[in-house]
Amino acid sequence: MGFTPEAYEYAKHKLNLNIFNCDLNRCCFPPDYFDVVFLVGTIEHLISPKEMLVDIFKILKPSGLIVITTLDTKGILPFYSFKPPEHLYYFNHDNIDLLLRITGFMTVSIKAHHSYFRISDLLYRVSKFTSMSSINIFSKKIRKSFFDISIRIPTNEMHVIAKKILSD
User: Fold this and answer.
1) How far apart are the first and last CA of the chain?
2) What is the rounded distance in angstroms from the CA atom of residue 158 to the CA atom of residue 110?
3) What digits encode the pLDDT tens for the residues 15-45?
4) What are the DSSP calls for 82-139, one per residue?
5) Cα separation, 149 vs 5, whole angstroms
6) CATH of domain 31-113+154-164
7) For the packed helices 49-59 and 93-102, what is the interaxial angle rounded to 10 degrees?
């Protein structure tokens, strides 16, 4: 799908970044072209993640990196099960590592993603999710008193970094 036209124009012309806005198969990049490829919230939507990783392997330079973010089905809370099915594949530490190894990558790290949320915003979201108006009133009071206090919460996403390895 790529970037929105506005995001692409901003990155290309205002930030002067060398970016591409096309499907990987249509861009015809030469082998060993990129140092890093990012798949942010993408791999779970692909019809064939394995084929995409094979294609990425070809265009990465030797020792190039692939960075992936996706839901972790073995995360702390099964947030993915609260949503309608929109993903074609679900991953966890084990199966993403296996898929990367099969396609020529060595996993460098897999870490849980955390986000910072203001306490008042969390209470507000809980109140909307549970229809508990008393929590909403309480969150407004907290917002006025402690608007900058935040806590770190796992999001059930994982960050995966893998390195292209060359066979001997």
Assistant:
1) 36
2) 7
3) 998 887 777 777 889 999 999 999 988 999 8
4) GS-S--S--B-HHHHHHHHHHTTEEEEEEEEEEEEEEHHHHHHHHHHHHT-HHHHHHH
5) 36
6) 3.40.50.150
7) 50
Domain boundaries of the chain, sorted by first residue: 31-113+154-164
Residue 87 burial (CB < 10 Å; 0-12/13-18/19+)? middle
For the stretch 127-168, pLDDT in tens is 666 665 565 566 566 656 665 677 777 778 899 999 999 875
CA 55 – CA 109 distance, rounded (Å): 21
The order of strands in the sheet holding 105-118 is 34-40, 60-71, 150-164, 105-118
Amino acid at 67: V
